[in-house]
């Protein structure tokens, strides 16, 4: 965290204050009280104007200026949690109206209905989504084009991307290398988009040859649901990229596009393994024990249909995680449905794209 330097002495009791101290050790006065009041005023004004993301930006700044564990810290965290739900379009059941569900909530409800049909039904529904929603994927990317190009304006992102293209091109050819890097880039930009929506400062993607890419957070994600949605946003964007590549393959019949689609789907599916540092672990952070077992069943069902070994790994690791109690104490049905939908859809896409690839994955 980056916070302003504290004044030399406490204006209330005169105690000498160390740099970056957030509260006076003698009287407990908040060192940055005046700045906090200004931030709260801006946050409330943004909230009143209906801009929840701008309000989140201000509340996250405020969180950096209060001591961890203090009453003010918890109050601010509560504001961040509530605004995050608002950004996601989620309302309490007592106040929500059936006809005001957000598009994300509606998609989650459809995914939950598909999961109730059993793992095979969920996978078949996912296959239909992959084959029929190519137009949606293209329109989605076009609508986000300005944001997608953001990384190309950053020297670190562009230089590390070109280095990775050069490394992969030396092994597999430049066309496949470019397709792979674009797929990785869009995956990471999914994380950046989610972080931006939640008002979290973060870097643009940085690439590491043979290891992939990463985005570095400059502020913590304190809410498990927001962290889970941010983690799953990468595979969502990666799925869109893979679907677009697969649609191009069907139009051109060029096997290279099937290879790019299959590799992109496989890499995003790999990221759903719920172990540390992967997106699947963050997705599991907001799931209850029962919801984790649902994810196990979906992964096992997808394995039964596709015989993709990675799905057996996902199911096994997910089962181990399901035996553990969720310390966060949350239950996120929408996040669970999104995770299961991603597992089902990516596994089917990897399976069908593999058939069209020149030499398999």
Jot down its keywords.
361 residues, mainly alpha, Methane Monooxygenase Hydroxylase, Chain G, domain 1, 2 domains, 15 helices, 2% strand, globular
Can you walk through the features of this model?
The protein is an all-alpha fold and 361 residues long. The chain has two domains: 1-87, Methane Monooxygenase Hydroxylase, Chain G, domain 1, CATH 1.20.58; 104-356, no CATH class. The chain contains 15 helices and two strands. Strands 1-2 form a two-stranded antiparallel sheet. Helix 5 (119-132) packs across helix 15 and helix 13 (289-306) packs antiparallel against helix 14 (309-322). The longest helix has 29 residues, at 224-252. Mean pLDDT is 83; it is low at 91-105, 114-120 and 130-135.
Q: How does the SSE layout of this entry go?
A:
Blueprint: H1 33-48, H2 52-63, H3 71-87, H4 103-116, H5 119-132, H6 134-143, H7 145-148, H8 155-172, H9 174-197, E1 206-208, E2 212-214, H10 224-252, H11 255-270, H12 279-284, H13 289-306, H14 309-322, H15 333-356
Antiparallel strand pairs: 1-2
Helix pairs in contact: 1-2, 2-3, 4-5, 4-15, 5-13, 5-15, 6-10, 8-9, 9-10, 9-11, 10-11, 10-15, 11-15, 13-14, 13-15
